[in-house]
Amino acid sequence: MYRLTIALLVLCAMSICISAHHGPPPHIKAAVKKCNEEAGGDESTMEKIRNFEEIDDPKFKCFHACIMKAAGSMNEDGTINEEKSIEDIPQDMPDREKMIEAIKACKDEKGADECETAEKIAKCFMGNMPPRKHPE
Length: 136
What we know:
The structure is a single chain. It contains eight helices and no strands. Helices cover 54% and strands 0% of the residues. Its main location: secreted.
């Protein structure tokens, strides 16, 4: 579940997918920490998040939606804020154009609720991006 998750951050995940050189913007880092704590995660969970590993735990069902909302990439109605998602990607980020393409390709994914929608978007995004390790 989490390899997708930071698909995050994505959309946030998209915002989350920041290269090791740049690291995530402070508001994304804060969103990940907040949502991890709300879901009952610990340092081992944070390590999985940093490495884009899946978290197979039902407590994390809404993790992607939490991050996307906290970072401003998901609106209250569960739709994606495309402009904010793209804005969060640093201008000098490697693969920035691929990230923008992934955001545009995945923004219309829909699920039964915001949690499922965020999960589908994260999966789509991760499927469109090369794997990378997330910085601490």
